[in-house]
Amino acid sequence: MTTIDTATGKEAPAEISSERVKDIFSSIAKKYERFNAVSSFGAYKLWLAGMAKQAPIDSSHDVLDIAGGTGDVTFTMAREKRPAHIQCTDLVPEMLEVARAHYDEGASAGVPVDFQVVDAQDIPYDDASYDVITMAYGIRNMPDRPRALAEMLRVLKPGGVLVCLEFSTPPNGLWRALYSFYLKHLIPFWGGLITGDREGFVYLARSIKAFPDQKGLAQMMRDAGFVDVTWKNYTGGIAAVHVARKPE
Question: pTM score, two decimals?
Answer without folding.
Answer: 0.93
